[in-house]
Amino acid sequence: MIMSTFITFRSVLPHEPLPHEKFGYVHIQGSLTPKFVSSNNEFSSDQSESVSCSNISTLVSPENTRDMLFRALNADSDYLPLDSPLLKLPKELTSIVDVQILDANRNQTGDDPDHLVQITKARITYPSPKIARKVVAFLKDEQISPYDLCHLKRSDKTGCQTNDYVQQAHIYTQKMIQSTQVTQIPLPDTSIAWPRVGMPKFRRLLPTEMDKQNPQALMKIQQQRDSTRFVFMTNILIEHTDCPCVFEFQDALRDALKLHCEHSLPVEVFLPPKRQSTSYKYCHIGTRSPVDARTLIQELQGKTLRLTLSDNTKISTGPLFLDFADVTQRCAAQTNRLFGKPSINIEDQSSLNGVGEPPRPECTSVTSHVHVPGLVCVENFVSEEEEQALLAVLTGPHAPWAPAQKNFSKTGTLKRRVQHYGYVFDYETADVLRNREITETKNAMCPPLPSLPGGNESWDLDELEKFICDSVSVGNGWDVMAGILERVRRYNFCSHLDDSCRNENVDSEMPRVLNDVNPSFNNVNDISTVREVFNTKRKFSFINQVTVNEYKRGQGIGSHVDTMSAFDDGILSLSLSSSCVMEFLEPDKGFKKLVYLPQRSLLLMSGPARSLWEHMIVTRSTDCVNGSVLPRKTRISLTLRTAISLPQKDGTVEPLPLVETRTYPPQWGSDEKSMSLSSGLATPETERNHVHAVYDAIATQWHHTRGKCVAFRLISVCGFIYNILSSDAFFFLCTLR
Amino acid sequence: MLWPGATKFLNSLPKGSIVCDVGCGDGKYFPAIWETGSYVIGTDISEPLLQTSIGACKEHGSDDAGPHTRLISKENSGLNKRPAVAVADCMHIPIQSRSVDAALCIAVMHHLSTVSRRLRCLKELSRIVKIGGSIIIQAWALEQDQDSKRKFAGNDVFVPFNAQPRYLNKVASKGDGDTDKAKSAAEVYSDAYEGAEYDETKGLVVFQRYCHMYRQGELETLIAQIEELELVESAFESGNWQVILRVK
């Protein structure tokens, strides 16, 4: 029996024929261990009968639970209370072969009562699958609960006579257990078996009026009729026939239909969910091949079938009508997706994409040989928890989305939402607004960047990581953002960039400065020197501007190079909430490179990658990465840049000063503006749009779906109080409106 | 569901108390208040929600009587032909000072987006309740239970509400009449409701509700700033902070 723990079981699906197995297995699931009640707790009288005293470790031991289940399911009248529903178990169902407690292994620490693990799962083995199926039906019909299974009369021997252990009251739940028949036989291929527990939706394969005009459509339907393995069958029970139990009826139908099919596996029978008053009218049959489906229809059309139920009663169907059917396209697509049939052809693929998109995105592997010097992608730069904390700030209620901005063409407005921290990037002039005062008059939102407590320089790397970790755990997203920014400023791209340069012949000819200190900005005056110096740059510690871009699914950005005069070398981009593929183009030689940016990765564009190569994101809903198609989600991208001053008299540029704050939500602009944003009593925009408007819109649903059964119990309690005091007269309040 | 802490609070009130339910919504607590023999005045900023509270109190068997779990016993039905409700902002509650015996403020404070508004709400509550009267406040907690399906990454968050299109009056009423097939479902909903997004895979319209998740002790710190209020009890209940106050 130890071996069997390695065998995988699956549940027998409702439409599926009984498995050809030697034994039948039933899984039961429910809280099989009692809940202990401390003695000072009060109990009303009707519950007290289920409270009894016993020795804890005996009750929760797997051996004992196994023993109890064995006795209960064998309907052992010596142990079962007289009113136990289990005494109704038919005799043929009480032949248990074995009982196994499935989560017994987790229960090793059973000595310490505080760490008792609940026993919740057991597998019971019966001599045949048929018996197992009947037991499942019985357990469901009688609504058997752990209380029925484990709350047994105890003989003196097993009772609580020893006082060596603490004795406590315990109670078994009366919530129904879940029982499922399971099997060791794996499910056959999805082309001949419906793989899911749920019923598929079916459609008849009949031409519509429109199709009748169109010979091509007619042909297509004929093809479908030829290749389907599903059959629709109606008039299966004459009205007023007493409706047999589902299992029995399904089995009887299967036995009768089996004679008409040549394949060894019995057919699947899909009965529609039954409403109480009506009996079954129709069903769908899943045969194992289109050939079987055809013979079934030919042989049974208009005939009646005699069905034999398990107790040998015979019922007959009405004159049957059969026709070809198929599962709906949606069901089929879902099944393919869930069970990994990679049969999506290009035609179907287009449905994944938006309108007008080419059917398949270009795969990253096409350009895998192309190397972009100075381009580095660091995967998992932030953890999932950090990502969540960042998103909470950047997409949350206080996120300072910029008002709609004109774009570079001066005709349209920017389609995607953006936020600017530190300095505003003006899309109209494609330049950074260096003067924060001007920013205000332009009515642009420009909050400062977040800063670390006590200044950014004073933190060493370990402290910084601990600070980020702590901020994540207390949910302080602004501090997390400050920490991540500083992590980027401190990050040494040395190893990545050395690799990058080794592969690049052009770069290796360039002079390289090998010392790894922060480069001075003073000798930067023209592009050529910029490139030389920046090819040696390993850290980007002057980052003073962050732009947050929200790319909705299907949005992209045109090919561009970030304005050279506005930003220093080293453009960094952190991808949150979705991955995407970015395209890099070298206009002179016409090189192209597709780069996959995984979610939570940090991309560095430096040197040639920043100044020579253009980058863009194609507007599409999917990307193709090494052969697999990945759907995009809404991507939040943080672009981290170093805004620089205009060239001074000697031609040098300097990074603009860092504008930072510790307060969140960040405030900016004149005092008046920040006052109205934070301390006024007028209803803020956020509440107007995201509280008032929402409740107005959802009022009906809110009222109808909130308020479940708890109130019922309350009323009975309140009603009791009310009855005591009910003699008083009542006054009526006028309504205020 | 009703919060057990809140119902316990209601049961502790002497019979015949006048209770003001600030932010009563659809009047979820009205039956519970009436059943304890008290009277209720409800205020809420959302008129559509208040309308449902009136509908729910109609006679038994009426079509729009709401969930039957909210119905109150026959003997008490005289009380609730029409509940006393008013559309009002919790910054300005339209009730005389010191005029009610107790106030309920359930799931309101977490929708206020600034500290000054939270303080103002507390001030208003302390103003309308008589001296010696009690107030119960309940608001969402940042600290959620381990097994809670909700987990909040920060103090101020959007909590999505998945609305089923059939309940959305604005769109349903336009409905089949003008069959504007050029518009996708997503466009129809985003046009009708600003800020709402249509989830195609689930067929739901997703609204974003602003919520401020209170940290442990945050409510208490606010309360300490209001002279008239005295903290009697504070507790944590299924992901919510709950405080009971007395007016000094």
Description:
The complex is a heterodimer of chains A (737) and B (248). Chain A has 3 domains: 181 residues, no CATH class; 137 residues, 2-Layer Sandwich (Alpha-Beta Plaits), CATH 3.30.70.330; 298 residues, Sandwich (Jelly Rolls), CATH 2.60.120.1520. In chain A, a hairpin with a 5-residue loop joins strand 13 and strand 14. Chain A is an alpha+beta fold and 737 residues long. Chain A has 22 helices and 31 strands. The radius of gyration of chain A is 36 Å and the shape is elongated. The termini of chain A are far apart. Chain B is of the alpha/beta class and 248 residues long. Helix content of chain B is 24%, strand content 29%. About 6% of the residues of chain B have low confidence. Chain B folds into 2 domains: 175 residues, Rossmann fold; 56 residues, no CATH class. Chains A and B meet through helix 12, helix 21 and helix 22 of A and helix 2, helix 3, strand 3, helix 4 and strand 6 of B.
Write the layout of secondary structure elements.
The complex is a heterodimer of chains A (737) and B (248).
Chain A: E1 10-11, E2 24-29, E3 35-37, H1 45-48, E4 52-55, H2 56-60, H3 62-73, E5 98-101, E6 121-126, H4 129-141, H5 146-150, E7 167-171, E8 178-183, E9 202-204, H6 209-213, H7 215-227, E10 230-234, H8 246-258, E11 268-270, E12 282-286, H9 290-300, E13 306-308, E14 314-316, E15 321-327, H10 329-338, H11 346-352, E16 375-378, H12 384-394, E17 417-421, E18 425-426, E19 431-432, H13 436-441, E20 449-450, H14 461-474, H15 477-490, H16 494-502, H17 505-509, H18 527-534, E21 545-551, E22 557-560, E23 571-576, E24 580-586, E25 591-597, E26 602-605, H19 608-611, E27 614-617, E28 622-625, E29 628-631, E30 635-641, E31 660-661, H20 671-678, H21 685-705, H22 710-724
Parallel strand pairs in A: 20-31
Antiparallel strand pairs in A: 1-8, 2-6, 2-8, 3-7, 4-7, 5-6, 9-15, 10-12, 10-15, 11-12, 13-14, 16-26, 17-21, 18-19, 21-30, 22-27, 23-26, 23-30, 24-25, 24-27, 28-29
Helix pairs in contact in A: 12-15, 14-15
Chain B: H1 4-12, E1 18-22, H2 30-35, E2 39-44, H3 47-56, E3 84-87, E4 100-106, H4 115-128, E5 129-140, E6 156-163, H5 169-174, H6 185-192, E7 197-199, E8 204-212, H7 218-224, E9 229-237, E10 240-247
Parallel strand pairs in B: 1-2, 1-4, 2-3, 4-5
Antiparallel strand pairs in B: 5-10, 6-8, 7-8, 9-10
